[in-house]
Amino acid sequence: MEANAAVLYEPGTPLRFEPVTVLPPGRGEVQIRMYAAGVCHSDLHVMKGDQPMKMPIILGHEGSGVVEAVGDGVTSVEEGDHVIPIWRMSCGTCEYCLGGRPALCDVGTALRFTGRMPDGKTRFQTAGGAEILHYAGVSTFSELSTMPEGAVVKIPKDFPLEFAALIGCGVITGFGAVFNAGDVTAGDTVAVFGCGGIGLNIVQSARLAGAVRIIAVDTVPKKLDYAKQFGATDVINASEVNPVEAIHELTGNLGVDFAFEAIGLPEPIEQAYDATRKGGTCVVVGISPPAARAKINVNALVYAEKTLKGSIYGSTRPRIDLLRLIELHRAGRLMLDELLTRTYPLSAINDAYADLENGEVARSLVMCQG
């Protein structure tokens, strides 16, 4: 079938909105008519060349849609079901999956870095018949996308698809960083470095966990304003003051129980670690360029018994946690309406990314239909 998609041919160049051929689902695969896709920094890293990927490629890893067709052997979904793509597909049988850590599954890792389906082939072609690679196994920047059955989660049909698109990456990553990787509890103090889509969801998840003080750190005033809306008790503009010193002043020179880094650069990682108190935990969520290295005070790691850890996809179990997030929103506890700042047609995706880089949105979506 033919569909419009945003294709990246070279790093540092705009995405091309053009017709592509989408092959039908094979055995164990599904074809999704995408409704909306999230505009996320992870795709921007590839667009700018910070995360090397083979090209041409259709990006997009956050979204929602409706099952258009299913291949042989598919049992978990059927035509017409509403779904959220999982950008870290898991096999369900390896030691990581069975141990409750599906984001570490090697199957999902292979899909991300090869750009191909498990059989080694792609399901996208240019108008001239050349292959186009997949991104994270789901490629949501296309009106139609074929992906493995294991890369989709069925959701209730009465849940708005635009909100479903939001929770598939940014919300679940922030939520999981707080409740899984960090294990924040009532009365804790928290600092969040970076108040983009993921950082804001760390802020609001810390609020849900009962953190008594939530300190948001960024260099963009508008993002700090968003952070207040989502539950930050204090904000620090890191372009005006030293954020580590400011955090220590706010906490009686102790530091915070939990510091989260949601940018992916060495300096804020170092700052988040230095802002963590004795016995505290620093969680790195941001995706860094492959060669990035952070300098850590190892003596503080030992003598202060700090914990430094990473978290991919919020260390979540998407098939369970996505449905929990839906229920949290229905209960009025998870802010999604306020998170969605702006929508764009898929054809205007380059404008959407320009606005993201300028810090104009909390979270935005490209609408793949209409």
Uncertain parts? none
SSE run: EEEHEEEHHEEEEHEHEHEHEHEHEHEHE
Largest sheet: 7 strands, mixed
Bulk shape: globular
Give the name of the CATH architecture of the largest domain. Answer: Alpha-Beta Complex
Percent helix range: 25-40%
Q: What count of structural domains?
A: 2
Mean pLDDT: 95
Distance between the termini: 17 Å
In the CATH scheme, the class of the largest domain would be Alpha Beta
Q: What fold name stands as the CATH topology of the largest domain?
A: Quinone Oxidoreductase, Chain A, domain 1
Number of beta-strand segments:
18
| Rg, Cα atoms, Å | 20 Å
Strand residues, percent: 25-35%
Number of helices: 11
CATH superfamily of the largest domain, by name, is Medium-chain alcohol dehydrogenases, catalytic domain
The SS-based structural class is alpha/beta
Could you describe the 3D structure shown?
- The chain has helices spanning 41-48, 95-98, 106-114, 161-182, 197-209, 221-230, 243-250, 266-274, 298-303, 318-330, 349-357; strands spanning 2-8, 16-22, 29-38, 57-58, 63-70, 82-85, 124-125, 131-134, 144-148, 152-155, 189-193, 213-218, 234-237, 256-261, 276-284, 307-310, 340-345, 363-367.
- The two termini are 17 Å apart.
- It is built from eleven helices and 18 strands.
- It has two domains: 2-158 and 339-367, Quinone Oxidoreductase, Chain A, domain 1; 175-312, Rossmann fold (3-Layer(aba) Sandwich).
- With 370 residues, it is α/β, with parallel strands linked by helices.
- The mean pLDDT is 95.
